[in-house]
Design a protein that fits this description.
The structure is a homodimer of 163-residue chains. Chain A has 163 residues and is mostly helical. The first copy, chain A, has six helices and no strands.
């Protein structure tokens, strides 16, 4: 975790870019499913990710950034993916929000560990700032998950739904 | 699974493109790890994926293809991904080959199910052909996994290594 500043910035940009693309897909999917409220949330998240990415790019300026491996920044594919089932599964706002939350949590954990372990002062400070931002994203998604899916008695009793 | 021909072709192209990119990453990673033999295998797989993608593109001609969601064609991220551990984990040829094999198996399953369930004769035939091709990729990766990791007595006795 001894990132140089260019390595760290490359990760941050790739992660924001990836998040932006995924939020756009989720927004389109929710729109197709006529869930305008959650679609609007995902469009906001898409815009925030782009804004954050552009802010980081502005900071990069002429620094040359390394190329990263896909698994260093890509979102996970949804769990239980396979054929049509995955699509049906992801159409559900609750699952789409949970998927986004899990991926944002990974980003949060990444930034936190960099902030804790880096020996470069700039990297340390930036990673801390970005972790705070991700923390807000995770919290926002959590609130929506709560709101969308107010568990009924029956649902809460089903062990399959206790994540 | 009632794909139209354009839908099916879009999936096939995206899957080959994704595989090509991932094989290139795996090849670079193995090269950095000085495993030239496995690196060469991944470079071959990269080239085969590109050739197959281009062959499908040639068939597409002027047909307009739909845009897909990332989870319909992307490879999974490696299991147990997190910080540096994932990189160390993936540097191991055995794990890199297993990761590729698992992703190719998903492609194989996808093509097989399309071949079985499609009502479009062209889609059915093409999906069957592509499944055969994926089957060969999976078999090739399996042979390499066998070869790279000839289990010693000790290793075979460790339950952690029985996948």
């Amino acid at each position: 975790m001894s990132y140089t500043l260019p390595e760290f910035l490359a990760h941050a940009i790739a992660m924001e870019d990836e998040a932006a693309e995924r939020y756009l897909e989720l927004a389109d999917m929710m729109e197709a499913h006529r869930n305008d409220e959650v679609s609007a949330l995902f469009r906001d998240m898409h815009r925030f990710s782009l804004m954050h990415r552009d802010a980081i790019r502005a900071r990069v300026g002429s620094i040359e950034l390394p190329r990263l491996k896909s698994w260093e920044f890509r979102w996970r594919t949804p769990p239980e993916m396979g054929d049509e089932d995955a699509f049906d599964y992801m159409l559900d706002a609750y699952h789409a929000l949970g998927y986004a939350r899990d991926n944002e949590t990974r980003a949060l954990q990444y930034y936190r560990s960099v902030a804790e372990e880096s020996s470069d002062a700039d990297v340390k400070r930036l990673a801390g700032e970005f972790a705070t931002e991700e923390d807000e994203h995770v919290a926002a998604l959590e609130r929506w998950i709560e709101r969308i899916h107010r568990p009924s008695e029956t649902w809460a009793q089903d062990p399959a739904h206790r994540a």
